[in-house]
TrEMBL record:
The gene is potB. The keyword Membrane applies. Residues 69-276 form the ABC transmembrane type-1 domain. This is Spermidine/putrescine transport system permease protein PotB. PANTHER family: ABC TRANSPORTER PERMEASE PROTEIN, INNER MEMBRANE ABC TRANSPORTER PERMEASE PROTEIN YDCU-RELATED-RELATED. The chain crosses the membrane at residues 12-38, 73-95, 104-128, 157-179, 200-233, 253-280. It comes from Bacillus safensis. Belongs to the binding-protein-dependent transport system permease family. CysTW subfamily. Keywords: Cell membrane, Membrane, Transmembrane, Transmembrane helix, Transport.
């Protein structure tokens, strides 16, 4: 009994530094920002000592901010779906590589973009998509178009850049699920008369749903909260909530309104993540029933 208590104390002692770090640098700033979101401002955007729900009322009664909330969630969902559709075959090839060296090479290709700054990768898309960029230059040289296409400063450019940035975060969880799957299940299914397609939809796909949901949660959370990528390739006029928060902080200096919009975005992300987590639990319960 004493040994068990000592082990528990040791575990708590090992967790203490991480818990203190999260409290000081995550929980405390969130509480401070939550308090700030209820503060009033004067006509000069100076924060007052009074409290009200005026900032949240302003967020949900202003058409531009309501549209930004919907656009942010919609763009994040589109990015998530596209990433999952592209990540599944990539993860399958990654796991089913014929030899370890090729598999390691694929992993290096997958992880190498994560070693590069998001800003640098986003500027690379500007080089590709601008009117005098590589893609327009190639299309003009091939005489497929008569004048350069406008591929920057719109939501399509934002989604393309999002997918390129977020794709590795969708591939890795799916690859983990494929790796953890019992390698005898597919041959057993095919030996019982199921073809490759039926085996995929009845054996492989159901067992990789947890990896897909995990990847969806990561991609959606990152896409909903990103502002560097849409700012650089979409422009500051795009109706996205992170850009509105950036403008309130850096240009208007209305910090309480920015805090209110930040918590609105946080709640939206938590609702979607909670829904995905609930669906995952229902799926796992169904699989183990």
């Amino acid at each position: 009994m004493r040994i068990k208590k000592k082990n528990q104390r040791f575990h708590w002692f090992m967790l203490l530094p991480a818990c203190l770090f999260l409290v000081v640098f995550l929980l405390a700033p969130l509480v401070m920002m939550l308090v700030l979101s209820f503060r009033d401002v004067d006509s000069m955007m100076n924060t007052l000592q009074t409290y009200s729900f005026s900032q949240y009322m302003h967020v949900f009664t202003t058409d531009a901010y309501v549209k930004a909330i919907g656009s942010t969630v919609w763009v994040a969902l589109q990015t998530t779906v596209i990433c999952l559709l592209m990540a599944y075959p990539a993860a399958y090839v990654l796991v089913k590589a014929p030899n370890p060296r090729l598999r390691a090479f694929f992993y290096i290709l997958l992880v190498s973009p994560l070693l590069t700054s998001v800003v640098i990768r986003t500027f690379a898309w500007i080089v590709l998509l601008s009117q005098n960029g590589l893609i327009n230059g190639m299309l003009l040289d091939l005489q497929l178009i008569e004048k350069p296409l406008s591929m920057l400063w719109n939501m399509n450019a934002v989604i393309i850049a999002y997918v390129q940035v977020m794709l590795p975060f969708a591939v890795l969880p799916i690859a983990t699920s494929l790796t953890d799957m019992d390698r005898h299940l597919r041959p057993a299914s095919m030996s019982l008369g199921a073809g490759r397609i039926r085996t995929f939809f009845h054996v492989t796909l159901p067992l990789t749903i947890p990896g897909m949901v995990t990847g969806a949660i990561i991609v959606f959370s990152l896409a909903a909260g990103s502002y560097i990528t849409p700012l650089l390739v979409g422009g500051r006029m795009q109706p996205l909530l992170p850009l509105s928060i950036y403008q309130q902080v850096m240009q208007v200096y209305n910090l309480p309104l920015a805090a209110a919009m930040s918590f609105t975005l946080l709640v939206c992300v938590l609702v979607v993540v909670s829904l995905l987590s609930y669906l995952l639990k229902r799926w796992e319960a169904r699989m183990h029933a």
